[in-house]
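Teaching assistant here, posting this on the class forum so everyone can see the example we discussed in section. The complex has five components, and the goal was to see what a joint structure prediction looks like when all of them are supplied at once.
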Amino acid sequence: MRGRKLLMIRPMLIDSEDPTRFKPGSNTIIAVDTLGAGEGELVMFSQGSSARQADGLKQLPVDAAVVGLIDTVSIGDKKTYEAKND
Amino acid sequence: MRGRKLLMIRPMLIDSEDPTRFKPGSNTIIAVDTLGAGEGELVMFSQGSSARQADGLKQLPVDAAVVGLIDTVSIGDKKTYEAKND
Amino acid sequence: MRGRKLLMIRPMLIDSEDPTRFKPGSNTIIAVDTLGAGEGELVMFSQGSSARQADGLKQLPVDAAVVGLIDTVSIGDKKTYEAKND
Amino acid sequence: MRGRKLLMIRPMLIDSEDPTRFKPGSNTIIAVDTLGAGEGELVMFSQGSSARQADGLKQLPVDAAVVGLIDTVSIGDKKTYEAKND
Amino acid sequence: MRGRKLLMIRPMLIDSEDPTRFKPGSNTIIAVDTLGAGEGELVMFSQGSSARQADGLKQLPVDAAVVGLIDTVSIGDKKTYEAKND
């Protein structure tokens, strides 16, 4: 596990009161990041044995991995998330 | 993962107050779609290592996949869901 | 998956207020049935990679399977469930 | 699965209001017992593919197994559980 | 499992009201400790088949393992946890 970057992730849920918005879930997950995600970014992550399918994680005791960085999310016609580009 | 279509899925639960109806669950799942599902459709999905059994997903860090499109749901005698046919 | 019978299952939980009774849980699971269960029956089901150990499901993207039909449940001395025999 | 003893298990959680005590969780799990646990005993159980690592369960559609009988639990200095010895 | 040290773990969640703090989750997990963690320490743990990737656990019916000891946690600019050094 040496040298692996780890992120704290809060799953985002569709807000029941306004399904065009996200709200943060209540649990917190530690995931290995192989893609260089930063604080405040929206990422896609995989859990369980599937997380170990990500590059270079096959033999590690890893149960969550970031597998994608998200640029934009659209729900219906409404853009609900857009990544900040630096 | 390049070129894979991803869907945001909200699990549907049987409504405790009226078991002939569904209500949306509170969590949100990102699943790979290999069947061409569209917005507003009811689908069946599989999670964990089982999702990787779907066509062409064996080596991918995928922990959820759409494995079926649902035409109709009947609970008891009542049809609770019917897919819109275009 | 062609020709597989699927069931909607609601997990039963022990009722906290009266531990000799069951109450239905709030989630809904779609499981493959290889045993011929019917509506209203109490079954035992298995989830995740374990579900794929059931007969004939090894290669399918199945994450829940009915693995037993339940005849009677006894909690302490009280019989809390008895299958209807036709 | 023939001849396997099954137990209904209620997970015990640390009570938030008094962390030296347990309280029963709200879900109910059916686990294979290979150790001879009895009613009212506190056991340790394993879920998912890990449960199938228990003796003789490798090929069975089993997603929970009792893997230990608990004699005593101590939280801090306080003994919170002690098995009844017959 | 003989001689394995087991720990009771309470997952820590980010507090919704003050995201720079942790609060204890409501569930309790039993994990194998291969690293010598002590009471009151913050650890990282892995669940499911991933836990069995930890050193020496491949064949055991273990569904949770401590895979790291945490020195400090920083959320934004604020250090939210620091391990006590003896």
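For the discussion questions: The radius of gyration of chain C is 14 Å. Chain C has a mean pLDDT of 88. Think about how each of these relates to the inputs above.
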